[in-house]
Design brief:
This protein is of the alpha+beta class and 280 residues long. The chain has eight helices and 15 strands. The chain binds N-(5'-phosphopyridoxyl)-D-alanine (PDD). Its cofactor is pyridoxal 5'-phosphate.
Length: 280
Protein backbone atom coordinates (compact mmCIF):
# COMPACT_ATOMS: atom_id res chain seq x y z
CA UNK A 1 0.00 0.00 0.00
CA UNK A 2 0.98 3.59 -0.56
CA UNK A 3 0.18 5.77 2.44
CA UNK A 4 0.42 9.52 3.02
CA UNK A 5 2.42 10.96 5.93
CA UNK A 6 3.14 14.65 6.44
CA UNK A 7 3.33 15.67 2.79
CA UNK A 8 4.77 12.47 1.36
CA UNK A 9 3.35 9.45 -0.45
CA UNK A 10 5.34 6.41 0.73
CA UNK A 11 5.20 2.61 0.70
CA UNK A 12 3.64 1.69 4.08
CA UNK A 13 6.89 -0.04 5.20
CA UNK A 14 8.78 3.25 4.85
CA UNK A 15 6.24 5.48 6.61
CA UNK A 16 6.81 6.35 10.26
CA UNK A 17 5.65 8.62 13.07
CA UNK A 18 7.61 9.75 16.15
CA UNK A 19 7.51 7.82 19.45
CA UNK A 20 6.62 11.20 21.04
CA UNK A 21 3.61 11.78 18.81
CA UNK A 22 0.72 12.97 20.99
CA UNK A 23 -1.66 10.75 19.08
CA UNK A 24 0.30 7.77 20.35
CA UNK A 25 0.92 9.03 23.92
CA UNK A 26 -2.34 10.91 24.69
CA UNK A 27 -4.84 9.89 21.97
CA UNK A 28 -4.55 13.61 21.17
CA UNK A 29 -5.87 13.43 17.65
CA UNK A 30 -8.93 13.28 15.46
CA UNK A 31 -9.89 11.16 12.48
CA UNK A 32 -12.32 10.63 9.64
CA UNK A 33 -13.33 7.61 7.59
CA UNK A 34 -14.68 8.25 4.10
CA UNK A 35 -16.03 5.45 1.93
CA UNK A 36 -15.20 4.87 -1.72
CA UNK A 37 -17.65 3.24 -4.11
CA UNK A 38 -16.73 2.67 -7.75
CA UNK A 39 -13.65 4.82 -7.21
CA UNK A 40 -15.77 7.78 -6.01
CA UNK A 41 -15.51 9.35 -2.56
CA UNK A 42 -18.84 9.40 -0.71
CA UNK A 43 -19.81 12.56 1.23
CA UNK A 44 -16.25 13.97 1.22
CA UNK A 45 -17.41 17.55 1.93
CA UNK A 46 -19.28 16.43 5.06
CA UNK A 47 -16.25 14.58 6.41
CA UNK A 48 -13.97 17.56 5.66
CA UNK A 49 -16.37 19.89 7.51
CA UNK A 50 -16.57 17.62 10.56
CA UNK A 51 -12.78 17.29 10.62
CA UNK A 52 -12.49 21.09 10.82
CA UNK A 53 -15.02 21.12 13.64
CA UNK A 54 -13.20 18.39 15.61
CA UNK A 55 -9.88 20.24 15.17
CA UNK A 56 -11.49 23.51 16.26
CA UNK A 57 -12.99 21.98 19.42
CA UNK A 58 -9.51 20.75 20.39
CA UNK A 59 -7.77 24.01 19.41
CA UNK A 60 -5.70 22.05 16.95
CA UNK A 61 -4.22 23.52 13.79
CA UNK A 62 -5.37 22.16 10.43
CA UNK A 63 -2.35 20.82 8.55
CA UNK A 64 -3.94 21.17 5.08
CA UNK A 65 -6.64 23.15 3.26
CA UNK A 66 -9.80 21.34 2.15
CA UNK A 67 -8.90 21.31 -1.56
CA UNK A 68 -5.51 19.79 -0.78
CA UNK A 69 -7.17 17.22 1.49
CA UNK A 70 -9.49 16.22 -1.35
CA UNK A 71 -6.49 15.93 -3.65
CA UNK A 72 -4.69 13.61 -1.19
CA UNK A 73 -7.80 11.41 -0.87
CA UNK A 74 -8.11 11.17 -4.66
CA UNK A 75 -4.42 10.49 -5.17
CA UNK A 76 -4.41 7.64 -2.61
CA UNK A 77 -7.51 6.11 -4.20
CA UNK A 78 -5.73 6.28 -7.56
CA UNK A 79 -2.32 5.01 -6.38
CA UNK A 80 -3.88 2.09 -4.51
CA UNK A 81 -6.42 1.35 -7.25
CA UNK A 82 -9.32 1.44 -4.81
CA UNK A 83 -12.63 0.56 -6.45
CA UNK A 84 -14.59 0.02 -3.21
CA UNK A 85 -13.15 0.69 0.22
CA UNK A 86 -12.31 3.33 2.79
CA UNK A 87 -9.93 6.22 3.22
CA UNK A 88 -8.74 6.71 6.82
CA UNK A 89 -7.44 10.14 7.81
CA UNK A 90 -5.86 11.05 11.13
CA UNK A 91 -4.52 14.35 12.43
CA UNK A 92 -2.70 14.52 15.77
CA UNK A 93 -1.15 17.39 17.71
CA UNK A 94 2.27 16.31 16.48
CA UNK A 95 5.43 15.25 18.24
CA UNK A 96 6.92 17.64 20.79
CA UNK A 97 10.43 17.10 22.20
CA UNK A 98 9.20 15.29 25.29
CA UNK A 99 6.12 13.84 26.98
CA UNK A 100 4.13 16.62 28.66
CA UNK A 101 0.41 16.82 29.53
CA UNK A 102 0.23 20.49 28.49
CA UNK A 103 -0.24 21.16 24.79
CA UNK A 104 3.08 21.76 23.00
CA UNK A 105 4.09 25.16 21.56
CA UNK A 106 1.88 26.57 18.77
CA UNK A 107 4.55 25.99 16.14
CA UNK A 108 4.61 22.20 16.72
CA UNK A 109 3.68 20.68 13.35
CA UNK A 110 0.56 18.49 13.47
CA UNK A 111 0.98 14.94 12.16
CA UNK A 112 -1.26 13.93 9.29
CA UNK A 113 -1.60 10.34 8.13
CA UNK A 114 -3.91 8.86 5.50
CA UNK A 115 -4.24 5.31 4.22
CA UNK A 116 -6.72 3.32 2.18
CA UNK A 117 -8.46 0.01 2.90
CA UNK A 118 -9.63 -1.96 -0.11
CA UNK A 119 -13.04 -3.61 0.42
CA UNK A 120 -14.30 -5.07 -2.84
CA UNK A 121 -18.10 -5.24 -2.90
CA UNK A 122 -18.41 -2.99 0.18
CA UNK A 123 -21.97 -2.00 -0.76
CA UNK A 124 -23.03 -5.62 -1.37
CA UNK A 125 -22.01 -6.91 2.08
CA UNK A 126 -23.83 -10.14 3.06
CA UNK A 127 -24.59 -8.62 6.49
CA UNK A 128 -26.91 -6.13 4.81
CA UNK A 129 -29.05 -9.06 3.58
CA UNK A 130 -29.31 -10.86 6.93
CA UNK A 131 -29.08 -7.85 9.24
CA UNK A 132 -26.88 -7.66 12.34
CA UNK A 133 -27.47 -8.54 15.99
CA UNK A 134 -26.59 -6.22 18.86
CA UNK A 135 -26.38 -6.30 22.65
CA UNK A 136 -26.73 -3.28 24.92
CA UNK A 137 -23.83 -2.26 27.16
CA UNK A 138 -23.23 0.74 29.45
CA UNK A 139 -21.80 3.81 27.69
CA UNK A 140 -18.51 4.35 29.54
CA UNK A 141 -16.95 6.82 27.09
CA UNK A 142 -15.90 10.38 27.86
CA UNK A 143 -18.47 13.19 27.59
CA UNK A 144 -17.42 14.78 24.25
CA UNK A 145 -18.49 12.13 21.76
CA UNK A 146 -19.28 14.85 19.22
CA UNK A 147 -15.52 15.22 18.67
CA UNK A 148 -14.21 12.41 16.48
CA UNK A 149 -11.09 11.62 18.51
CA UNK A 150 -8.85 8.57 18.10
CA UNK A 151 -9.61 7.70 21.74
CA UNK A 152 -11.46 4.54 20.70
CA UNK A 153 -10.57 2.04 23.41
CA UNK A 154 -14.08 1.78 24.85
CA UNK A 155 -15.55 1.32 21.38
CA UNK A 156 -13.06 -1.47 20.89
CA UNK A 157 -14.00 -3.03 24.26
CA UNK A 158 -17.67 -2.77 23.30
CA UNK A 159 -17.02 -4.61 20.08
CA UNK A 160 -15.29 -7.38 22.06
CA UNK A 161 -18.22 -7.59 24.53
CA UNK A 162 -20.48 -8.07 21.50
CA UNK A 163 -18.20 -10.76 20.07
CA UNK A 164 -18.12 -12.61 23.39
CA UNK A 165 -21.92 -12.47 23.46
CA UNK A 166 -21.92 -14.04 19.99
CA UNK A 167 -23.33 -11.00 18.19
CA UNK A 168 -22.07 -8.33 15.78
CA UNK A 169 -22.07 -5.06 17.66
CA UNK A 170 -23.09 -3.22 20.82
CA UNK A 171 -25.48 -0.33 21.43
CA UNK A 172 -24.43 1.85 24.35
CA UNK A 173 -26.81 2.97 27.08
CA UNK A 174 -26.56 6.07 29.27
CA UNK A 175 -29.17 7.15 31.83
CA UNK A 176 -31.56 4.53 30.50
CA UNK A 177 -31.35 5.57 26.85
CA UNK A 178 -29.40 4.35 23.84
CA UNK A 179 -26.69 6.78 22.77
CA UNK A 180 -25.27 5.07 19.67
CA UNK A 181 -23.47 1.97 18.39
CA UNK A 182 -19.74 1.42 18.96
CA UNK A 183 -18.99 2.99 15.57
CA UNK A 184 -22.36 3.96 14.13
CA UNK A 185 -25.56 5.88 14.87
CA UNK A 186 -28.59 3.90 16.09
CA UNK A 187 -32.22 4.03 14.91
CA UNK A 188 -35.49 2.25 15.57
CA UNK A 189 -38.69 2.28 13.50
CA UNK A 190 -42.15 2.12 15.08
CA UNK A 191 -45.43 2.43 13.17
CA UNK A 192 -43.55 3.82 10.18
CA UNK A 193 -41.73 6.48 12.21
CA UNK A 194 -37.91 6.60 12.23
CA UNK A 195 -36.60 7.43 15.71
CA UNK A 196 -32.98 8.40 16.45
CA UNK A 197 -31.32 10.29 19.28
CA UNK A 198 -31.04 14.05 18.80
CA UNK A 199 -27.65 15.67 18.22
CA UNK A 200 -25.71 16.78 21.31
CA UNK A 201 -22.28 16.21 22.82
CA UNK A 202 -23.50 12.68 23.74
CA UNK A 203 -23.13 11.24 20.22
CA UNK A 204 -21.07 11.63 17.08
CA UNK A 205 -22.84 13.76 14.49
CA UNK A 206 -22.75 11.13 11.77
CA UNK A 207 -22.26 12.31 8.21
CA UNK A 208 -24.28 9.29 7.02
CA UNK A 209 -26.94 10.14 9.63
CA UNK A 210 -27.36 13.64 8.19
CA UNK A 211 -27.65 12.32 4.63
CA UNK A 212 -30.03 9.47 5.55
CA UNK A 213 -32.37 11.72 7.58
CA UNK A 214 -32.50 14.22 4.71
CA UNK A 215 -33.27 11.43 2.21
CA UNK A 216 -35.91 9.94 4.54
CA UNK A 217 -37.68 13.29 4.76
CA UNK A 218 -37.47 13.77 0.99
CA UNK A 219 -39.09 10.32 0.62
CA UNK A 220 -41.95 11.52 2.91
CA UNK A 221 -40.92 9.23 5.75
CA UNK A 222 -41.56 10.44 9.29
CA UNK A 223 -38.51 11.21 11.42
CA UNK A 224 -38.40 11.89 15.16
CA UNK A 225 -35.11 12.94 16.76
CA UNK A 226 -35.27 11.84 20.40
CA UNK A 227 -33.73 9.34 22.75
CA UNK A 228 -35.21 5.86 23.21
CA UNK A 229 -34.77 3.10 25.78
CA UNK A 230 -33.56 -0.47 25.19
CA UNK A 231 -37.10 -1.63 26.13
CA UNK A 232 -38.66 0.57 23.45
CA UNK A 233 -36.06 -0.68 20.96
CA UNK A 234 -36.94 -4.33 21.66
CA UNK A 235 -40.60 -3.57 20.91
CA UNK A 236 -39.80 -1.68 17.71
CA UNK A 237 -40.87 -2.95 14.28
CA UNK A 238 -37.33 -2.63 12.95
CA UNK A 239 -33.97 -1.05 13.66
CA UNK A 240 -30.79 -0.08 11.84
CA UNK A 241 -27.45 1.69 12.17
CA UNK A 242 -25.63 4.10 9.86
CA UNK A 243 -21.96 4.86 9.28
CA UNK A 244 -19.55 5.61 6.46
CA UNK A 245 -18.38 2.00 6.44
CA UNK A 246 -21.77 0.25 6.68
CA UNK A 247 -24.09 2.84 5.03
CA UNK A 248 -27.53 1.75 6.31
CA UNK A 249 -27.27 -1.62 8.08
CA UNK A 250 -30.42 -3.39 9.34
CA UNK A 251 -30.45 -4.58 12.98
CA UNK A 252 -32.58 -7.71 13.51
CA UNK A 253 -32.00 -8.58 17.16
CA UNK A 254 -31.36 -6.64 20.39
CA UNK A 255 -30.22 -8.48 23.55
CA UNK A 256 -31.55 -11.76 22.12
CA UNK A 257 -34.97 -10.31 21.25
CA UNK A 258 -35.77 -10.55 17.53
CA UNK A 259 -37.37 -7.45 16.00
CA UNK A 260 -40.50 -8.10 13.95
CA UNK A 261 -39.96 -11.38 12.09
CA UNK A 262 -36.19 -11.25 12.70
CA UNK A 263 -35.29 -10.16 9.16
CA UNK A 264 -34.30 -6.69 7.84
CA UNK A 265 -37.26 -4.30 7.91
CA UNK A 266 -38.71 -2.58 4.82
CA UNK A 267 -37.75 0.95 5.88
CA UNK A 268 -34.13 0.02 6.60
CA UNK A 269 -33.91 -1.79 3.26
CA UNK A 270 -35.49 1.12 1.38
CA UNK A 271 -33.20 3.68 3.06
CA UNK A 272 -30.14 1.61 2.19
CA UNK A 273 -31.20 1.52 -1.45
CA UNK A 274 -31.93 5.25 -1.54
CA UNK A 275 -28.66 6.12 0.21
CA UNK A 276 -26.50 3.96 -2.10
CA UNK A 277 -28.32 5.17 -5.20
CA UNK A 278 -28.09 8.87 -4.32
CA UNK A 279 -24.51 8.82 -3.00
CA UNK A 280 -22.88 6.99 -5.88
N1 LIG B 1 -17.24 5.49 12.77
N2 LIG B 1 -20.89 7.08 15.94
C1 LIG B 1 -19.63 6.68 16.19
C2 LIG B 1 -19.22 6.48 17.61
C3 LIG B 1 -18.73 6.45 15.14
O1 LIG B 1 -17.48 6.05 15.39
C4 LIG B 1 -19.18 6.63 13.79
C5 LIG B 1 -18.27 6.42 12.61
C6 LIG B 1 -20.52 7.03 13.58
C7 LIG B 1 -21.07 7.27 12.21
O2 LIG B 1 -20.55 8.44 11.61
P1 LIG B 1 -20.40 8.59 10.04
O3 LIG B 1 -21.75 8.36 9.46
O4 LIG B 1 -19.94 9.97 9.85
O5 LIG B 1 -19.41 7.54 9.59
C8 LIG B 1 -21.33 7.26 14.68
C9 LIG B 1 -16.29 5.26 11.68
C10 LIG B 1 -16.91 4.69 10.47
C11 LIG B 1 -15.13 4.44 12.22
O6 LIG B 1 -14.76 4.71 13.36
O7 LIG B 1 -14.61 3.59 11.52
Amino acid sequence: RTVYVNGQYLPEQEASVSVFDRGFLFADGVYEVTSVLGGKLIDFAGHARRLQRSLGELEMRSPVEEDELLEIHRELVRLNEIEDGLVYLQVTRGAPADRDFAYPPEDTEPTIVLFTQSKPGLAESPAAKTGIKVVTIPDARWARRDIKTVQLLYASMGKMMAKKAGVDDAWMVEEGQITEGTSNNAYIVKDGKIITRELSTDILHGITRAAVLRMAQEAQMQVEERGFTPEEAKEADEAFVTSASTFVMPVVEIDGTPLGDGTPGPIAKRLREIYLEESR
